[in-house]
Structures are given as structure tokens and as C-alpha cells.
Design goal:
The complex is a heterodimer. By secondary structure, chain A is mainly alpha-helical. Chain A has a domain of 212 residues. Chain A is built from 13 helices and eight strands. In chain A, α6 packs across α13. By secondary structure, chain B is mainly alpha-helical. Chain B has a single domain, classed as Formate dehydrogenase/DMSO reductase domain (Formate dehydrogenase/DMSO reductase fold), CATH 1.20.1630.10. Chain B has 13 helices and six strands. Chain B has a two-stranded antiparallel sheet. A two-stranded antiparallel ribbon of chain B has the order 3-4. A two-stranded antiparallel ribbon of chain B has the order 5-6. In chain B, α3 crosses α4. Classes of the chains: A mainly alpha, B mainly alpha.
Chain lengths: 477, 344
């Protein structure tokens, strides 16, 4: 493979978009969780909910900031690296991206200020409204992005003009394209799951730590908050993880109907035939056009796709090798995603059962499992996006515009420079952000939720008594 | 029938102007960061913009996203042409954006590092935006609707001069903002910074204006100057445009006079007038181009049905955005001091 601006631009987009999706995947769910916590606090007046809110809002602030700045990069990257994509399709998907800014970004960004800094500036109800609006904004953002991306998977409602650019013939068809509903549901559930797993892991970590500290004595500080957090998280995962299995299946059915090439890559089907097997494992080899070391269950592939056993399912042999995606990546990423999803279902149902038996807080092995599953939502989200984005190759807009025809007229050196710059900057930012978040989680809700006392933050020696009176010259007019 | 491309050119120009003024003052606060004397004063400086910077920056996303959606032809030409300065701007925005939270969370050495990143990122962003503006004024090479120039077309002494001017301009906005939002010693420092920045802006604005007239005959002729052989002036062309530099001079005068008189708010208004003048000056020089001097707003526009779809939403949503943005500024009105502490 030749190292050129196309390959480097693809690597750069894969890197920057993978980095970015980690934050929305977490903050979409976390914003909703915060709105629920604040609502519960206003309703029940229980201090534990306020403590939990003040704790998780700090983690939200760090994650959201990282999401904002990495998102700006993406919107400009469409122009810097994929200018032909915008030149050709801008008249169709441009409005979707513009509506994201108008309906979501401003809402989030403006009310975030009130949410983070307005605790003492506005009343509790108005503050709650700000939290709710931020949460709504994050979900609206997902709506438009998933719509635009789904149009790239299952394009419709457009025509190609004489100069090669596109014009929408029906914007309703563009926005509500065939793969959009299932993929939006799949992504929103993934975001809620990711948040639930992180909240569950952080809470389980504190429960484990408090068990160790307690040493048989009475409850220690933070006892209640960590337990509430854990139960809420497990409740969420227990409900959402099984639903996600159904949503994922729905998404797969839509792909089978509209993107048979992607389905064939995911399932590792090289041969077009009826009665496909289900490949549990294998090593797809595009050069040989077959899988090595296959572990398969014959006769159930069609059942998994929800089609009769005697119906023919297309294999990769329907397309020339140059028109096939790099099968290896969607094949394995899909198995990673599904494997993690099954573990999440086990966590949710197992936790719910333990809680029902009143043994949840006294099951160290299960609490450790919760901690270990903390990052699994992020991994599953990344794997899922790899399935869908790599599975669409070699097309950028499926069946319409090839990735190689969408790249900007920029030089290899320029893209190499930007790729190195992004990797360096993101490495610094990610390391620092991860340290700050993990540090807060280790402290736990009670220690970290305390309102910072401005006086403690002073440099040594600058005693408050010496603070000068307001000697500002001039008038405040 | 509405002239949709024209309306959208106006809307995007307004969004970019709002961005330049709003993010301008919070970038300016970052540019002035190295001059603050104490950590507590830097805390206050940051706290004056912390609740609003994210909303301010969203106007940049609207400017970029709006250009993408309304003028895909221009967006797909300008971005590759300005590849490296856009990269620098994004890197600067990332470092300063995360610094708001990170600087507060970090300890000792980490805090120092993120203090530097906030200042460095703000300066880098301002310089990069100046280079983008300079490169934009110089124009881009377009063949067959695609960018066809070189990697460093934007890098000239002229674009560096524009970058210096924009850094000074943002420092002026930031200083005047701090005069309005702080008190005591920090207010005194802000006043000094504002006056120095205003002096630098006056000099650089004059230099950029002259350089533009000399280097770009096309713009010079629009202002009634013909400097190709000797000096010729067409008063009829220049006279109606003179109101633009007049607004700028009035703004500068307001900054100097009102700051000396001890006003806390009028210098900020004066600084906005200076930016308005510079911006209108550019608009008068470029109309009707959205990718100088290759594509005008009609050639680069998206199909009418895309523009119409966006316009209906915008007509309803944009006033709403302006209302709640104003409300957020109202919530955080008044002076910020060290006792206000931080936030959540």
C-alpha cells in the first residue's frame, strides 16, 4: 500500500474520529444521568443525590470539554482533508450538519456555563432546566450526526447534477434514510450503556475500597452515595443491555437489506449460497478469498439473519476483490462488540439478581467484574463504529462516491504533518484528562463533591485579612 | 423570490463577526495571561470567561459549518488552501479549550503547564486566524472548482502582518473586557494592557490598510485608489466608504479617552467598534467573493432547496439562540473577584 495523502487522510480521520467518539459516547448518557440525579434531588431532597450530582458533574465538565475541542477538528477536517466529499455532497448533507450546530451545539455550550458555574447564580429549578437542556442538546447532536452518517451508508433522496455535484430531491428522505432509525437507537443505547458501565465501575471501586477501610466497623463516609450510584448503574445496564441486543439485531437486518456487502464482510461469507453457516471464528484472507481456521456452526447463519434457510445470501464473491472492504477488520470488530455486549448483559442481569438477593455489596468478585467492565462500553462503541465505517469501504457514500475520489488536493507532507500534530496534541490532552478523571473517581463522590473553598486555593502567605479594599479607580458606568 | 445565496452570505458574515468579537475577547484574555502578576489574578481572568467561552466558540463552528452547508464550493477550496494555518488554529483551540478545566484540576507543575497551554494556545489560535485571514485576502488559486495552489501560498510578509494585527486586536478586546469585569489591581493592569494594545492596533491597522492597498490593486481600486503608476484617487468611489475608517477611528478614540476618564465599560464598546470597522472594511473589499478572487457567493452556493431548508430553521432558531445567549451573559453579569472562587 502506497503512503499517500489518501492513506494518511484515512488514518487521520480514523484516529481523530475514534478519539472524539469516546467523549460523546460517555457524555450523552452522563448528561441524562445528571439530569436524573438533579431531578431526584429536587424531588426527594435527599442530599446523597446532590452529592452524586456535584461529583459526576466535575467528571462531565472534563469529558465534555475534551469532546467539544475534538469535535471542532472533525467539522473542519471535512474541508481540509475531504474537500471533494463536501464539494460533491455538501448540498445534501451540509444542512444536516448546519442543523446540528443550530439545534444542539448552541444549546449545549450556552447552558453548560449555567450548569457548571451557575449553581449560586440561578435558582435550583432554573439550574435543573439548564442540566436538562444540556442533556437534550447532546441527544439532538447525535440525531443529526447519525442522520448524516446513515445517509452515507444508505443514501437516497438525491440526484447528481451535470457538474458532478449533488442536489437533494427530497430532504425528508435524506434525513430519514433507511438505516437512520436503527442506527440512532443503537448509538443512543450504546451511549447510555457506556455511561452506566463507567458509573458502575467507579461506584463498585468505591464500595470495594470502603469495605476494606471499614474492616467490620460502622459505615464510612460516602457509603450511601457509592451504593446508590452502583444500584442505579446496574439497573440501567440490566434494562439497556438486552435492549441493545435487539437494537443491534435490527441494525444488522437493515444492513442485510441495504448493504449486503457489509453483511458479507461482517459474517465472513465469501461464497454466495443458501443455508449459510455461522462463523464463530476465522481469519479472513482477502488475497485467498477465504477464511482460515474457521470455527462454524452449519445451518444457522440464515436464521441469525432472520431469513429462511433456503434463501440465498450474497457472499463477497459478488464483488471484485478491489470492491470488497478489508474484511478482517469488520469481521473481528463485530465479534469483539458482540462479545462485550454479552458480558454487559451478564453484568446487568447478574447484578440485578444479586441485588434482589441483597448480596450485591457483599460480592467482591462481582464488584471486581464491574470495575473491569468500566471501559467495555468505550471498546464496544469503537468496535461498532469500525464495523460500520470499515464495512462501508471502498465507498464513502455507499455505492455512489468512493473514498479515494473524496480526498482533498493536498500533499502527502501536509497530511503527515497534521497527523503527527494531532497524535501529539491528543496524547497530551488524553493523558491529562484521564489522570484527572481517574483521580476524581479514586477520591469518590463525597471527597470530590465538596464545594472548593476559594480561600484554601490561595497561595501561602496571602492572608485574607491583608486583601486590599476595592480601590479600583474610576466609576463603574 | 428570495435571493438565498445573498441572504446566506450575509448570515455567515454575521456569524463570523459575532465569533470574532465574542471569542476575540476570551482569546484576548489568554493572550494577556503571561502579563498577569499572580496566580490568583490569572484565576480571576479565566473565571471572567469560563462560563461563556464554549458558547462563544460555537460561532466558529457555525461559521465553518455554515460555510460548508451554504457554500460547499468555497469551503472545499478554502480549507485545502489554508491547510496548515487551519491545523495550527485547531491545535491552539484544543490546548486552550481543555486548559479551562485542566488548569483548575492540575497540581503544581501540571497547573503551570496548563497555564502556559492556555496562554500559548490562545496566542497560537490568534496567530493562525490572522494567517487564515491574510491568506484569504491574498486570494486562492482555483482550477476547475478545486484548489490548485501550493502548500505555503498563505505564508507571506503580508499575512504575518495581518496575524500581528489580529493578535493585538484580540488583546485589545481582552483587555477592555477585563477592565469591565475586574477590580482593584487587576483592573489597573487591564487598563494599562488595553491602552498599550490600542496603540499597537492603531499602528498595525494603519500598516495593514496601507499594505493591502499597495499589494492588492484590485482592492485599492474598489477604494478609489490607483497606485499602479504614481497616485490617482477617485473620490466618488472613496467618499461613501470613508464612514468605515471613521468608525474605527472613533472606536480607538473612545478606548483612549474613556479609559483615561476612568470608565469601565466604554473601552469595550470602543474595541468592538474597531473590530466592526475592520470587518466592514474587509466586506467592502471582497464583496461578492467567498473564495477570493475565484468564486463569488453565487458560484459557490449550495442548491436553493438546501439554502431554503436551512433558512426556515435559522429564522426560527437563531433569534432563540441570541436570546438565551444574552440571558447567560446576564446571569454572569458583574465583576468577578478572587472571593468568587471557582464553580461546580
Amino acid at each position: 500500500m502506497e503512503i499517500d495523502a489518501l492513506l494518511l487522510s484515512r488514518l487521520q480521520f480514523a484516529f481523530t474520529v475514534s478519539y472524539h467518539i469516546l467523549f460523546p459516547a460517555f457524555t450523552i448518557g452522563l448528561a441524562a444521568f445528571l439530569a436524573v440525579l438533579e431531578g431526584l434531588w429536587l424531588w426527594t431532597k435527599r442530599d446523597a443525590f446532590k452529592t452524586l450530582y456535584l461529583f459526576w458533574v466535575k467528571i462531565f465538565a472534563i469529558s465534555f470539554g475534551m469532546g467539544v475541542v475534538s469535535g471542532i477538528v472533525l467539522s473542519y477536517q471535512f474541508g481540509t482533508n475531504w474537500s471533494e466529499f463536501i464539494r460533491i455532497t455538501g448540498g445534501v448533507i451540509g444542512p444536516l450538519l448546519a442543523y446540528e450546530v443550530l439545534t444542539a451545539f448552541f444549546l449545549e455550550a450556552s447552558f453548560l456555563g449555567v450548569m457548571l458555574f451557575g449553581w449560586k447564580k440561578v435558582g435550583p429549578r432554573l439550574h435543573f432546566l439548564a442540566t436538562v437542556l444540556v442533556a437534550v442538546g447532546t441527544s439532538i447532536s447525535a440525531f443529526w450526526i447519525l442522520s448524516a452518517n446513515s445517509w452515507m451508508q444508505t443514501p437516497q433522496g438525491f440526484e447528481v447534477l451535470a457538474d458532478g455535484t449533488m442536489r437533494a430531491t427530497d430532504f425528508a428522505a435524506v434525513i430519514f434514510n433507511p438505516s437512520f432509525p436503527s442506527r440512532l437507537v443503537h448509538m443512543l443505547l450504546a451511549a447510555f450503556l457506556t455511561t452506566g458501565l463507567v458509573v458502575g465501575a467507579a461506584s463498585a471501586y468505591r464500595v470495594l475500597k470502603e469495605r476494606a477501610q471499614k474492616g467490620g466497623g460502622g459505615p464510612v463516609e460516602g457509603w450511601t452515595e457509592s451504593r446508590i450510584g452502583l444500584v442505579m448503574a446496574i439497573g440501567l445496564v440490566a434494562v439497556v443491555a438486552p435492549l441493545q441486543l435487539l437494537a443491534g439485531h435490527w441494525s444488522g437486518e437493515v444492513a442485510h437489506e441495504h448493504q449486503p456487502l457489509k453483511t458479507a464482510a461482517i459474517e465472513g461469507y465469501w461464497e454466495t449460497r443458501a443455508d449459510q453457516p455461522l462463523h464463530l471464528f476465522g481469519i479472513p484472507d482477502r488475497a485467498a478469498q477465504k477464511n482460515h481456521l474457521e470455527v462454524s456452526i452449519p445451518g444457522v447463519g440464515n436464521m441469525i439473519q432472520n431469513v429462511p434457510r433456503d434463501e440465498v445470501i450474497k457472499g463477497l464473491d459478488q464483488w471484485a476483490p478491489d470492491d470488497q472492504p478489508p474484511v478482517f477488520i469488520p469481521f473481528f470488530a463485530f465479534r469483539v462488540m458482540v462479545g462485550l455486549g454479552l458480558l454487559m448483559i451478564a453484568l446487568g442481569l447478574g447484578g440485578a439478581w444479586l441485588h434482589w438477593r441483597k448480596r450485591l455489596f457483599d460480592s467482591p468478585w462481582f464488584l471486581r467484574f464491574c470495575v473491569a467492565m468500566g471501559p467495555s462500553g468505550f471498546l464496544a462503541v469503537l468496535a461498532g463504529w469500525m464495523v460500520t465505517e470499515v464495512g462501508r469501504q471502498p465507498w464513502l457514500v455507499y455505492g455512489v462516491l468512493r473514498t479515494r475520489d473524496a480526498v482533498s488536493p493536498v500533499t502527502t507532507a501536509e497530511v503527515a504533518t497534521s497527523l503527527i500534530a494531532y497524535i501529539s496534541v491528543y496524547a497530551v490532552v488524553f493523558t491529562a484528562g484521564a489522570i484527572f478523571i481517574l483521580r476524581l473517581m479514586a477520591e469518590g463522590p463525597v471527597a470530590a463533591a465538596a464545594e472548593p473553598d476559594p480561600r484554601q486555593d490561595r497561595a501561602p502567605g496571602s492572608a485574607l485579612a491583608k486583601a486590599p479594599a476595592d480601590t479600583t479607580p474610576g466609576e463603574d458606568a | 423570490m428570495l435571493d438565498l445565496p445573498l441572504i446566506w452570505a450575509g448570515l455567515i458574515a454575521t456569524a463570523v463577526l459575532l465569533y470574532v468579537v465574542l471569542d476575540g475577547f476570551d482569546l484576548g484574555v489568554g493572550i494577556l495571561f503571561p502579563f498577569a502578576k499572580r496566580k490568583e489574578e490569572r484565576d480571576v481572568m479565566m473565571n471572567t470567561v469560563a462560563p461563556v467561552w464554549d458558547g462563544n466558540e460555537t460561532w466558529l463552528v457555525l461559521g465553518g459549518g455554515g460555510l460548508l452547508a451554504a457554500f460547499p464550493g468555497a469551503f472545499s477550496v478554502l480549507m485545502p488552501a489554508l491547510y496548515l494555518p487551519v491545523l495550527l488554529m485547531l491545535a491552539g483551540l484544543i490546548l486552550r479549550g481543555v486548559a479551562f478545566e485542566f488548569r483548575f484540576r492540575a497540581r503544581d507543575r501540571g497547573r503551570k503547564f496548563w497555564t502556559q497551554m492556555f496562554a500559548g494556545g490562545s496566542i497560537l489560535t490568534a496567530v493562525a486566524q490572522g494567517l487564515i485571514l491574510g491568506g484569504f485576502i491574498q486570494g486562492v488559486t482555483v482550477v476547475d472548482g478545486r484548489f490548485a495552489g501550493g502548500t505555503f501560498d498563505w505564508l507571506t510578509p503580508y499575512s504575518l502582518l495581518v496575524a500581528a494585527g489580529l493578535v493585538a486586536g484580540y488583546a485589545l478586546l481582552g483587555g477592555a473586557w477585563l477592565m469591565m469585569k475586574t477590580k482593584d489591581n487587576l483592573h489597573g493592569d487591564a487598563k494599562r494592557w488595553t491602552l498599550i494594545a490600542a496603540g499597537a492596533v492603531a499602528a498595525l491597522l494603519a500598516a495593514v490598510s496601507l499594505a493591502t492597498l499597495y499589494i492588492h490593486p484590485r482592492i485599492a481600486s474598489r477604494w478609489g485608489f490607483d497606485l499602479s503608476n504614481g497616485f490617482a484617487l477617485d473620490w466618488a468611489a472613496l467618499a461613501p466608504l470613508l464612514v468605515i475608517p471613521a468608525v474605527g477611528l472613533a472606536g480607538l478614540a473612545m478606548v483612549f479617552v474613556m479609559a483615561r476618564k476612568g470608565s469601565h465599560r466604554w473601552p469595550f464598546v470602543g474595541a468592538i467598534a474597531v473590530f466592526l470597522s475592520g470587518y466592514l472594511g474587509l466586506a467592502a473589499s471582497f464583496t461578492p467573493y467567498v473564495a477570493p478572487y475565484a468564486l463569488d457567493y453565487r458560484q459557490a452556493a449550495a442548491p436553493d432547496n438546501a439554502l431554503a431548508l436551512m433558512l426556515w430553521g435559522t429564522a426560527f432558531i437563531l433569534p432563540l439562540i441570541l436570546i438565551y445567549t444574552a440571558w447567560v451573559y446576564w446571569v454572569f453579569r458583574g465583576k468577578v473577584d478572587e472571593e468568587s472562587g471557582y464553580h461546580h
